[in-house]
C-alpha cells in the first residue's frame, strides 16, 4: 500500500507492534500526489487540498518516525508520511500499543518508544542507522516521540503536532469535545480519576508524562505546532518554554484532529525548520 510494507515485531514479553515501513530505496514510481482531506468532526468541518510534486521538493536521506494520537491508528498518519516520502525520507509508522493491530494496553507512548527503539535496532538498522531521524508525534503520540528522542543519539529533530501538555486536562477536554457514550454523566473529577487510573494501570511513572519538562530538558531542535481553537491542546501551555532549540507555531483555526494534515502553511514551516536543522539546501515553495 502506497509503497509501504506492513511488518510486525514482538518483544520477549509477547507484546506485538504492527507498523508500516517505507524504504526510500523502493520509492513509488510517481511524480506527484494530491493530498485531500475533509473532516466533519464535532470540532467542526475543515478541508485541505494540496498537490506535492516530487521534482519541486528538497531531498533528504533519513527517517521520519510518525506516532499517531489516542484512539487512532497508523493509517491516520499515512498522508503525513507520504509528504515526507516525497522528500526522500524513510517512514516508520507504528500502531501504538492497544491501538490498531498492536497488542497490549495503552502505555501513553513510553513503552511504545522502547519497542520502536528495538525495531530500529533489530529489524531496520540497515536502512536507518547512521542517518538522521526525525521523531514526530501527534497529540498523545507526542509522548512517544519525546521518549524515543530521549533514548537515541541519532534523533536530529522532534516535530510535535498538538502535543498533550497536561494529560488530566486534555483527557477532560477530549471527553467534552468528542462525547463518547455516557460521558455526559461524568463530572470533570470523574474523568480526572479515570485518567489517573489508566496511567496507574499502565505502570507509567507520572513524570514520564510531563511534556513541558521533557521538551525543556532535551537539546534536540523541536518544532511544536498548536492551534488557538484547540481545546485538547492549549497553546498557552507551551508559550513559556525556554530554550533556543524550541520553536512554536500557533495556527489560528485548526481543530485538534486536523493538526497532522499538511497544507501549504504547514509545508512552509516544516521546510524552514528542516532547512535550518536537518539539511541546508535550496527548495521551492508550493
Automatic annotation (TrEMBL):
PANTHER family in the record: HYDROLASE ALPHA/BETA FOLD FAMILY, PEROXISOMAL MEMBRANE PROTEIN LPX1
InterPro entries in alphabetical order: AB_hydrolase_fold, Carboxylesterase_BioH, Hydrolase_4
Spans through the membrane: none
Domain Serine aminopeptidase S33 residue range list: 61-180
Protein name, UniProt field: Alpha/beta fold hydrolase
GO molecular function, one term: hydrolase activity
SUPFAM superfamilies tied to this protein: alpha/beta-Hydrolases (SSF53474)
Domain of life: Bacteria
Keywords for this protein: Hydrolase
Coiled coil: none
Cited Pfam families: Hydrolase_4
Amino acid at each position: 500500500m502506497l509503497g509501504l510494507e506492513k511488518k510486525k515485531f514482538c518483544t520477549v514479553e509477547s507484546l506485538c507492534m504492527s507498523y508500516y515501513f517505507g524504504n526510500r530505496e523502493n520509492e513509488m514510481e510517481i511524480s506527484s500526489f494530491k493530498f485531500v482531506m475533509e473532516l466533519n468532526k464535532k470540532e467542526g468541518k475543515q478541508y485541505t487540498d494540496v498537490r506535492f510534486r516530487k521534482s519541486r521538493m528538497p531531498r533528504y536521506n533519513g527517517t521520519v518516525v510518525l506516532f499517531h494520537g489516542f484512539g487512532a491508528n497508523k493509517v491516520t498518519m499515512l498522508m503525513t508520511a507520504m509528504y515526507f516520502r516525497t522528500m526522500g525520507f524513510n517512514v516508520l509508522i507504528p500502531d501504538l500499543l492497544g491501538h490498531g493491530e498492536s497488542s497490549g494496553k495503552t502505555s501513553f507512548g513510553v513503552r511504545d518508544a522502547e519497542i520502536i527503539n528495538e525495531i530500529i535496532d533489530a529489524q531496520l538498522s540497515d536502512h536507518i542507522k547512521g542517518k538522521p531521524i526525525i521523531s514526530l508525534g501527534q497529540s498523545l503520540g507526542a509522548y512517544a516521540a519525546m521518549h524515543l528522542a530521549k533514548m537515541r543519539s541519532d534523533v536530529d529533530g522532534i516535530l510535535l503536532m498538538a502535543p498533550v501538555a497536561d494529560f488530566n486536562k486534555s483527557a477532560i477536554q477530549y471527553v467534552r469535545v468528542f462525547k463518547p457514550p455516557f460521558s455526559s454523566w461524568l463530572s470533570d473529577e470523574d474523568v480526572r480519576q479515570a485518567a489517573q487510573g489508566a496511567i496507574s494501570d499502565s505502570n507509567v511513572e507520572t513524570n514520564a508524562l510531563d511534556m513541558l519538562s521533557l521538551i525543556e530538558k532535551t537539546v534536540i531542535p523541536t518544532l511544536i505546532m498548536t492551534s488557538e481553537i484547540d481545546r485538547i491542546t492549549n497553546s498557552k501551555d507551551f508559550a513559556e518554554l525556554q530554550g533556543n532549540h524550541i520553536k512554536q507555531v500557533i495556527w489560528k483555526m485548526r481543530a485538534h484532529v486536523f493538526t497532522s494534515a499538511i497544507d501549504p502553511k504547514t509545508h512552509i514551516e516544516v521546510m524552514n525548520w528542516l532547512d535550518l536543522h536537518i539539511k541546508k539546501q535550496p527548495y521551492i515553495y508550493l
